[in-house]
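--- STAGE predict ---
source: upstream dedup step, 1 unique chain passed
mode: sequence only
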Amino acid sequence: MDLTLLRRAALPAAALALALQATPAFAACPPPGPNAPVSVSVTVQGPDTTLYQGTIRTKGHDVTTATGGTHRCDGTNAGKNPAPVPTPTAALDDAARKAQFVWDGTWYASFDDFSVDTIKNVTGGSSAYWNISVNGTSIPVGGCQFALKAGDKVAFTWTAL
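--- STAGE serialize ---
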């Protein structure tokens, strides 16, 4: 092999080795935790109009309502997830804080979850309820139990009985 060719091959290899030694390894960066904040879109659809629509950065957290008190709402409710995760009701709570509107919900200890009763003064009462859906599908568990992923579309829709 020609000595010039050997040098040309060795020089880039040596430079790469030095650069790798000086650069921290990507493996040293921990992956995001299970309750890392995610961005989701939240829509609140009332009986006649959209009450709220926006993108929220959320993660599972304690939620406080006037009727229900303060309870965790981080996906570990009723043992649905092994570690805290972002949830639809936590996203609603974050949207309410961001846009400065009020929502209320009753806490049901037997379900370890809230029932969303009122959003922006719109109450279901005995004739309607607030349906929670993610990506167009009603969730099969409570709003503090369902795990959200980045980019999910969360909707709270006033639904007549």
